[in-house]
Amino acid sequence: MPGDLHTHTTFSDGSTPVEKMPFLARCAGMTHLAVSDHDSMRGVRYAYAHPVQEGVHLIPAVELTAYDYDRAHRVHLLCYWPDDCAPLADFCDMMAERRRTAMLQSCRELEEICPQFRTEEALELAKDSGTLFKAHVMRVLWQYGLADGMYNDVYRSLFGLKPVRGRVLHTPRYEPVDDVLALIKASRGVAVLAHPSVYHSMELARELIGMGRLDGVEIDHPRNTPEDKAELLRLARANDLLLTGGTDYHGLNTVTPRPVGAFATRDEEIVRLETLAKARKMSNRKAQ
C-alpha cells in the first residue's frame, strides 16, 4: 500500500484536475494518495468527500507556506488529516488573498512590458484555485512562445530572487514557522517538513526536530540531496519521526515532469501516519 503523499492539482499551481489524480495513482501502483495543494482547503475537502476513488485511498492534506525569519527563507509544511476547521480555512483564505493581490500587481506590470500578455487569460487558468500563481502567468507566456518553458530563464528574469530580483516580482507576506506549526496542531493535523533541501532548511529541520515540533520529515523527494536525505534519515530514526515521500507532482507546471508515484511513502509509514492521525482525533473526542 505505497502512497504518493505530495501532489498538486489545479486547486493550486498544478495543471491536472483533482478528479484525474486517483486514476494516475492507481496506474502507478499506489494505494494511497495525498493531494496537498498550496494553502488550500479544496484538496482536504475533496479527500474527505471522496475517501476512496479508483481503489485509491485519499489522504486529506495541504501544503502550508511559512517563513523562517531567522534565516530569511520560505518553508513548506505538509499537514495531513487536519480537521476542516475555521482556523485552517481562515489561514488558507488569507493566503489566497495575499497571493492574489501580489500576483495581480505582477500582472499589471507584465502587461506594460509584454503586449501579448493578458491577465484575464492567467485568471482563467487559475479559476479552480481561487487565487493566482506564477505558474498561471508562465503558462500564458509559454503558450505564445514568449517563455523558454515554465521556470527557466524568462521565469527568473520576471520572478527570480537571486542574483537579481525579478522585474515583476511581488511576494505575499508569509506567517512565521512557529505560527503555522501551531495552526497544524490546532487543526489536529500531522506536521511533516517538506523537501528540506529545496529551501535550504536543514538547519531549521535540526532545530524543529530537537524541539519536538515535527511529526515527520519528507525524505523521498526528487529535489532532496543525498547528503540531506542521509542526515534526515538519521534524525528521524533517532527521534521516531515519520518518513514520508512524494513526487511533488505538478503536471505540466514544472521544470522536470515526473509521473505520480515516481516518489512514494512506504506501506509501514502510511500505517504509522494514519494511526497517529486517528489517535489525535480520538484524544480530542475524549477531551470533549
From TrEMBL:
Q: Which SUPFAM superfamilies match?
A: PHP domain-like
Identification of the protein by name: PHP domain-containing protein
Q: Which organism is it from?
A: Candidatus Gemmiger avistercoris
Q: Which domain of life is it from?
A: Bacteria
Q: Which GO terms describe its molecular function?
A: 5'-3' DNA exonuclease activity; 5'-3' RNA exonuclease activity
Instruction: Enumerate the spans annotated as Polymerase/histidinol phosphatase N-terminal domain.
Output: 3-68
